Amino acid sequence: MAKISIGRAVARREVLKGIGAGGALALTGGSPGYVQAQSSEPIRLGFQLHRTGIGAAYGRWYQRTTEAALEVLNAAGGIGGRPVEVIFEDDGTDPKRGSEVFEKLAVQRKCDLVFGALFSHVVVGTAPRAAELRVPYIVCSEGHHVAAGLNRWTVQPGITDVKSQVISMAPWVASNLGKKVTMIYPDYAFGYDHRDFFSEAIKAQGGEVVELIPIPPTETSFTRYLPRIPAETEVIYHVMVGPAVLTFVKELGEFYGSGDHPEIFGFIDSLEAVSTESPGLEFLEGSHFWEGMPRYRQPDATPFDAFYRAAVGVDDSGAATGDPKDISTYSHMFSCWESLFVIKQAMEAAAYKGPDDRQAVVEAMEAMTTFAASNEHPQGDKRFNGKTHQVFGPQYISKVAGGKLDVVHQTSIEDGLYPDQVDYTTMPF
């Protein structure tokens, strides 16, 4: 189990105390007419965890967030009156191992379903096994793979995908930063989504991508790639992942020095788990980042954000409570929290009793349409498309100001909608 700091434990006790008082979390007891299960046997959920490998920084916070959500969920009665357990297994952020971990959780550990994976290549490598075993696979990724067509057992209800993210923000980038873009992105499925969909989106705004620079996600130095940035570039669009993200941003700053440089628009992936106030990042002042959920608490933040921060143990700057050097992966980890409560909602709607009801859980998710901003959905209102198994929600563009991140633009759900490419509800299980 993840180690919980004293400050975090105190915060979470206060949250749970509020639940006991009846006012902190609005968790319903199921769909109308639903009779709570008589069994006291725990519901077991498997979690495909990136504990090691290039996704380790995310994995640590994904586990921490899930454990916090689990405490809240169980304090409010679990699922259908049954307690819930989450069993974590490390997939090494590796697609082959991911498939093996899924099978171990579903078959050996007898989990009712599996959720959690972030990295696209792991999701793509695992999804076929989920279909073979007929076990729901609830992914917390951002790749467009689910909405583009994997299988009916794979669902992404807790976080938006790259295609939605980039098409909703391209108009703002073109209007405020520039139209000649050089893209620097990881050389695997997640990066290809950015490459393909942002190229289309900026073209629709009258712009163009003047250079594509793919970089292996395990790269540790980036200086040899940066001279490829054309002089005509108006915007550098970067999205990097892995343990060397701080090195990438620092080397980008060293490459340009104190002189003029293009506008910089990055996905916060390039700085997840890294403080924007780190030495060497001064050149980022005035640049912009996509955020899935604002790391720094904003003046207009909802009480749902406050509840979530307290439960997970994250302060107003996005760091672990009591440890300002331990920066969270705040723009992504909410997907674990929200996915767990979607699982609860679906299992209760399906009157889940055991593995024979797994298909009914997927069908219950497909029937969902909206998630209102709440303690269960602290990132904001969302719209779920049961045909494509993909959720849509708001995106945030933040500006680095004084070493902090201030939100300057929030997109609407409608900004990120796109035509269906698949209809899972017409496919066989």
CATH class of the largest domain: Alpha Beta
Largest sheet: 7 strands, mixed
* Count of strand segments: 17
Rg from Cα: 21 Å
Quaternary status of these chains? single chain
Question: Could you explain how this protein is built, in words?
Answer:
The chain has helices at 6-20, 56-75, 95-108, 120-133, 145-149, 162-176, 189-204, 245-256, 303-312, 330-349, 358-366, and strands at residues 43-49, 84-90, 113-115, 137-138, 154-155, 180-186, 208-215, 235-238, 263-267, 288-291, 319-320, 323-327, 370-371, 382-385, 390-392, 396-401, 404-410. It has 429 residues and is α/β, with parallel strands linked by helices. The chain folds into two domains: 6-160 and 301-393, 3-Layer(aba) Sandwich (Rossmann fold); 162-291, Response regulator (Rossmann fold), CATH 3.40.50. It has a seven-stranded mixed β-sheet, with helices on one face. The chain has a five-stranded parallel β-sheet with strand order 2-1-3-4-5, with helices on both faces. Helix 1 runs parallel beside helix 2 (56-75) and helix 6 (162-176) packs across helix 7 (189-204).
List keywords for this structure.
429 residues; alpha/beta; Rossmann fold; 2 domains; seven-stranded mixed sheet; five-stranded parallel sheet; 17 strands; 35% helix; globular; disordered N terminus
Topology:
Elements: H1 6-20, E1 43-49, H2 56-75, E2 84-90, H3 95-108, E3 113-115, H4 120-133, E4 137-138, H5 145-149, E5 154-155, H6 162-176, E6 180-186, H7 189-204, E7 208-215, E8 235-238, H8 245-256, E9 263-267, E10 288-291, H9 303-312, E11 319-320, E12 323-327, H10 330-349, H11 358-366, E13 370-371, E14 382-385, E15 390-392, E16 396-401, E17 404-410
Parallel strand pairs: 1-2, 1-3, 3-4, 4-5, 6-7, 6-8, 8-9, 9-10
Antiparallel strand pairs: 10-16, 11-12, 13-14, 14-15, 16-17
